[in-house]
Amino acid sequence: MRKYLLPLLFIFLFVIESTFALMVAPTEMFANERWFIPHFLLGAIMLLVIFGSKKLGLLYAFIFGLLFDIVYTEIIGINLFLFPVVTYIVYQLMKILQNNLIVTTIITLFGVALMELGSYGVNFIISITTMGFSDFIFSRFIPTLILNLIFIIIVIFPLKKYFERYVERLSL
Amino acid sequence: MPQFFLNKRLIILLVSIIILVSLIGFSLRERDSVTWPEQFLKDMTGWAQNIVAGPTQYIAGFFENVQDLQNTYEENKELKSRLDKLAFLEAEVQLLEKDNAELREILEKEDSLTDYEPIQATVIGRNPLRWEEKLTLNKGTRDGIEANMAVITANGLIGKVKSAQTFTSTIQLVSSKDPTNRISAVVQNGEKKEETFGLIEGYDEKTKRLLMTKIPYDAKVEKEQMVVTSGYGGVFPKGLPIGKVVEVTPAEYGLTQTAYIEPNADLYDIQHVMVTKLNSINPEIQKELEELNEEEES
């Protein structure tokens, strides 16, 4: 049973993102002017690659990137490419940097920022969005970073413990 | 130079960029239906979304109820004033409907473009990245939903069905920036009983208005006029309310006009929708379709 807990966790995060977008984001409280984009799944995958194993993290990034494209965006390729690339960059950065909770939080947030910028770039090129760059920064990029920072701060400690134990058990 | 080509990571990156571009190209072309592995994965996710959406909707509903209670007094006052007019309207509608049915009988015309069968559905998910506004519904082809059907809420048109799977379907909102997302619409001029045709295409994110283009340059479109679907696309029923005209400007080359339309329906907070299943399609289009089929067969 414990073996299946990790995939289940990621599937749960995958689904909860769409529910979050449906329930929380469009309420009047946020005045519809700001986009709070949840990157919970990517955040957890980045934490997995930092605290857990590289192989497992990249595999999950690849699988869920593909799943994300098929189910939500219907344009196959964008997230399939961005998820593993961002995860890999974060992994390489963490090899150089100190492995403590504050640095990890900042680097994970940096990964989210990369993801947002990357997906803005691709969507702008294929003209799915016509949002200007300054609009993007103020109404989408900054709110999204704030939301995901809150998420990372909440989950970083429990996930660190869980991933480390999971990998330990795998190597036994 | 040889070292450049021997760099394994660089080659992986280049190859994946090529794959990325070709995959995007593959999915951007107009597709009538999604492939079966995609359908399967979407249905599976839909099933999981259903499980999660239930409790969250319950909790969100509770908070909304509390908010509603605060506004009850004022709403009640306003509703009472409208209730008086309602009785008159109802009587009038009944009369008109009866008239309409009788006239139709005289003309021996049974089906009309306005007739549709609503299929109730609940929204269970939304594209979290929100570059393209796409929603997932909890009903699919099993309940009669097909691609390209119009989707409405109680207030008006919100979009169309992009793709339908067995148990779920994906809808695209009118605010989506997809160049293939066009709706044939008509501006109603109440007093003169004139109709002006145009196309709804595009959405201005800042002002939250829809763009109606290809309006003839000599047509007199004014503020506050209602815009409804024309039914000439062949897949949307006629007369679904879209919104109100806010502003009219000449288009780029002055050959046509562009109207800015404030949508009737809330395009952000959507929970329950109706998918309109048309009872009949435009006879001209049906004829064309039949001809096409015959050509293909022969």
TrEMBL record, chain A:
Transmembrane segments: 37-53, 60-89, 101-126, 138-159
Pfam families reported in the protein's UniProt record: MreD
Membrane topology recorded in Swiss-Prot or TrEMBL: Multi-pass membrane protein
Chain coiled-coil ranges: none
Protein localization: Cell membrane
UniProt key word Cytoplasm: no
Protein origin, superkingdom: Bacteria
NCBIfam families: shape_MreD (TIGR03426)
Protein name, as recorded: Rod shape-determining protein MreD
Gene source species: Cytobacillus stercorigallinarum
Protein encoded by which gene: mreD
TrEMBL record, chain B:
Keywords of the record: Cell shape, Coiled coil
UniProt keyword annotation of Coiled coil present: yes
tRNA processing is among the record's keywords: no
Coiled coil stretches, renumbered: 66-113
Domain Rod shape-determining protein MreC beta-barrel core: 123-276
Organism superkingdom: Bacteria
Pfam annotation, one family: MreC
Function: Involved in formation and maintenance of cell shape.
NCBIfam families: mreC
PANTHER family: CELL SHAPE-DETERMINING PROTEIN MREC
Family recorded in the similarity comment: Belongs to the MreC family.
Protein name stated in the entry: Cell shape-determining protein MreC
Species: Cytobacillus stercorigallinarum
